[in-house]
Amino acid sequence: MLELREDGMKLLTPENVAESLSVSRSTVLRMISDGSLPAVCLRRGKRKAVYRIREEVLERWVVSKERQGVKTERKPSTPARPSSGGNEKGQDFTRAVYTDLSASENH
Question: Is 0.70 surpassed by the pTM of this model?
Answer without folding.
Answer: no
